[in-house]
């Protein structure tokens, strides 16, 4: 069977599986729709959390980013795993003990204020929509790369699939679908990684292969060889970064704290039976995530090493097959600056922007690009970072079914994250806005219907954002983490660890953190992108890391305002005391 | 929402103190392996090798993640023990 047919087969089977699970686990009550009934086993929830968490970006792009960032890529590895320690130790068990459905539920009740709840809803919707627009685009891109359909058509197919299992199944459907999606995506990630590691080092375990010697008889370690080859080509060494220490520190911290404050992650821990289950479940989630996150840096290093040795100083005529395959898909381009027919890889961009291919081919058979060629550097090769994962199976000469598997895995990663985000958005609308704020008299049936309508609307909006991506989508991923760290995290943290924090303090803190972080990121990313260089940054901290400063401001403002306003009522002190002890969590309940 | 609030007596207070002390210890380790070994002390640690890894680089891309997993499971086990001691477990 041809590779293309295998891809159709694998993707078709996986979609049938997701929809089958969704029909089988349909939600019948709001409790099932919001928190899957509150009876999910901690290991199952851990697996669902891992799929929810790992997006198309983690699956397809992260290893490529690390391959080109070297040590600096550590910010993603530590940032997106360390957050689970914060979550498991400081937030999840207490929020589970509190026992309602949503993050705004907690903030609204703990700070005895509809204003606080509404501010939390605004933060949540902003964070989640920022995140989901990128996911829908990711779905479209995976479709177009593997299934030969238009990106927009891909987005629409993705919307339909998510519609079926998110709207029908709610949290219950999503949970069990995500378990299936995790299995698909981790298998699809690990299989090529094993083979690449075997190929490069002779050790099949990528985590160990990264610390082993290269399989070429030179006796050099992988990282040593990589440093040497990059330096010969004029790059800095792989194991050294180019970001300043304070920036690496702040980005890592913003990603960690932001992870712990992301509503679609927190809400997963409302689905387990007890507070102690929430702690264990976070541990399982971290194991499942770490499997991919400790493999990614190995894949990154192997792919970069392989890229250097098979592409640099290679004549185009003898370029490897995957190079020409992905050139056809617009992800690779070569422009022969010095006219020697040999591809030179060096520091700098080969030409301005992403390649725009012109008609016809050059003297060596390469596709011509119409971009303005940059002559201030010797680099002739443009490579999309996603190649590092997408081309892996071909680099390792793996059979067609592995390529099909990677396609199904990329789709699983994108769909599972999109569904989780859609759910928190619809819950925020039907539960936090409608039921708790505007129309408390609504019946259980009415609320469930509202949740489904809200989920449908959210899918349509997300799909439109995916089809017509505003130019800033790729630019604002930092928003989601920075805003979560600066707005929601401090309010939740103080709600648990301080009995005296009052509504005035919490609201002032959230608004300060949100506005400060938003303005800083918006200025450098949207208003004045040319000014986005280290000299102009506050304390040398990039927009990616500024959420940490927003968080510190949030804490300071909250404490100062608290001192100047009326103390929190006595019953709030008792509420906090009851959250702190695990006994009596019972099930997540309607109220 | 507190129809089944447990007694907020001295034992809950003592439990909370112990929990806080445990949290401070574990969060300190969390900080040291990632921000400490992986970022602030990286240049110093990179002079030592762990197999083919410079040590600071290893902590930043591998080691800190393994320690994170251990921290979460250790906390889940240890705090459960403390809860049982004060008869507050769920």
UniProtKB/TrEMBL annotation, chain A:
It holds the Pfam family SSF. It is found in: Membrane. It comes from Croceicoccus pelagius. The keyword Cell membrane does not apply. Belongs to the sodium:solute symporter (SSF) (TC 2.A.21) family. It is a multi-pass membrane protein. One of its GO terms (cellular component) is plasma membrane. Keywords: Membrane, Transmembrane, Transmembrane helix, Transport. The chain crosses the membrane at residues 6-24, 77-95, 115-133, 153-170, 182-200, 245-270, 282-303, 401-429, 449-468, 474-493, 505-526, 546-566. InterPro entries: Na/Glc_symporter_sf, Na/solute_symporter, Na/solute_symporter_VC_2705, Sodium:Solute_Symporter. This is Cation acetate symporter. GO terms for molecular function: transmembrane transporter activity. It comes from the Bacteria.
From TrEMBL, chain B:
This is Sodium symporter small subunit domain-containing protein. Residues 14-88 form the Sodium symporter small subunit domain. The chain crosses the membrane at residues 20-41, 53-77. The lineage of its organism: Bacteria, Pseudomonadati, Pseudomonadota, Alphaproteobacteria, Sphingomonadales. InterPro entries: Na_symporter_ssu. Keywords: Membrane, Transmembrane, Transmembrane helix. Pfam families: DUF4212 (PF13937).
């Amino acid at each position: 069977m041809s590779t293309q047919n295998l891809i159709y087969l694998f993707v078709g089977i996986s979609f049938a599986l997701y929809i089958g699970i969704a029909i089988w686990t349909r939600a019948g009550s709001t409790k099932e729709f919001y928190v899957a009934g509150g009876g999910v086993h901690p290991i199952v929830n851990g697996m669902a959390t891992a799929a929810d968490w790992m997006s198309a970006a983690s699956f397809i792009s992260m290893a490529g980013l690390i391959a080109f960032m070297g040590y600096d890529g550590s910010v993603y590895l530590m940032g997106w795993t360390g957050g689970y320690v914060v979550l498991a130790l400081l937030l999840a068990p207490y929020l589970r003990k509190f026992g309602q459905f949503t993050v705004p539920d907690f903030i609204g009740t703990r700070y005895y204020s509809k204003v606080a709840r509404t501010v939390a809803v605004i933060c949540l919707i902003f964070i989640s929509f920022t995140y989901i627009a990128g996911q829908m685009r990711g779905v479209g891109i995976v479709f177009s790369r593997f299934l030969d359909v238009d990106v927009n058509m891909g987005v629409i197919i993705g919307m339909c699939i998510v519609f079926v299992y998110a709207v029908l199944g709610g949290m219950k459907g999503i949970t069990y679908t995500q378990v299936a999606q995790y299995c698909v995506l981790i298998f699809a990630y690990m299989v090529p990684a094993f083979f690449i590691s075997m190929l490069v080092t002779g050790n099949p375990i990528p985590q160990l292969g990264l610390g082993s010697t290269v399989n070429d008889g030179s006796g050099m370690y992988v990282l040593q060889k990589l440093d040497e080859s990059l330096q010969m080509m004029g790059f800095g060494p792989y194991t050294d970064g180019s970001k300043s220490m304070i920036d690496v520190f702040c980005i890592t911290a913003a990603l960690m704290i932001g992870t712990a404050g992301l509503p679609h992650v927190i809400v997963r821990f409302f689905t387990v039976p007890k507070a102690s289950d929430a702690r264990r479940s976070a541990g399982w989630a971290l194991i499942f995530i770490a499997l991919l996150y400790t493999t990614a840096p190995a894949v990154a290093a192997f792919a970069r090493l392989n890229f250097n040795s098979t592409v640099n100083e290679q004549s185009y005529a003898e370029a490897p097959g995957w190079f020409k395959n992905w050139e056809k898909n617009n992800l690779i381009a070569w422009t022969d600056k010095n006219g020697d027919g040999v591809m030179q890889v060096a520091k700098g961009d080969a030409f301005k922007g992403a390649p725009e291919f012109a008609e016809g081919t050059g003297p060596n058979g390469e596709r011509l690009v119409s971009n303005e060629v940059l002559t201030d550097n010797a680099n002739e090769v443009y490579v999309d970072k996603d190649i590092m994962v997408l081309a892996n199976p071909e680099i390792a000469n793996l059979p067609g079914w592995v390529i099909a598997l990677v396609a199904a895995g990329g789709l699983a990663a994108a769909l599972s994250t999109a569904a989780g985000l859609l759910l928190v958005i619809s819950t925020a609308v039907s539960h936090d806005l409608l039921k708790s704020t505007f129309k408390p008299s609504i019946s259980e049936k009415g609320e469930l219907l509202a949740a489904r309508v809200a989920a449908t609307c959210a899918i349509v909006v997300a799909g439109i954002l995916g089809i017509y991506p505003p130019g800033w989508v790729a630019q604002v991923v930092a928003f989601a983490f920075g805003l979560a760290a600066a707005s929601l995290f401090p309010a939740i943290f103080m709600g648990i660890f301080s009995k005296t924090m009052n509504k005035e303090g919490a609201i002032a803190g959230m608004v300060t953190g949100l506005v400060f972080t938003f303005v800083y990121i918006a200025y450098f990313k949207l208003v004045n992108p040319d000014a986005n260089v280290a000299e102009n940054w506050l304390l040398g901290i990039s927009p990616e890391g500024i959420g940490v400063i927003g968080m510190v401001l949030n804490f300071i403002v909250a404490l100062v305002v608290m001192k100047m306003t009326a103390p929190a009522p006595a019953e709030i002190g008792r509420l906090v005391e009851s959250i702190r002890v695990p006994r009596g969590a019972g099930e997540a309940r309607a109220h | 929402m507190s129809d089944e609030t447990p007694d907020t007596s001295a034992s809950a207070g003592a439990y909370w103190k112990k929990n806080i002390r445990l949290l401070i210890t574990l969060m300190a380790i969390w900080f040291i392996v990632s921000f400490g070994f992986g970022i602030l002390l990286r240049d110093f640690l990179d002079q030592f090798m762990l197999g083919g890894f410079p040590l600071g680089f290893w902590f930043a891309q591998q080691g800190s993640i393994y320690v994170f997993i251990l921290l979460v499971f250790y906390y889940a086990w240890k705090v459960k023990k403390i809860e049982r001691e004060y008869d507050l477990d769920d």
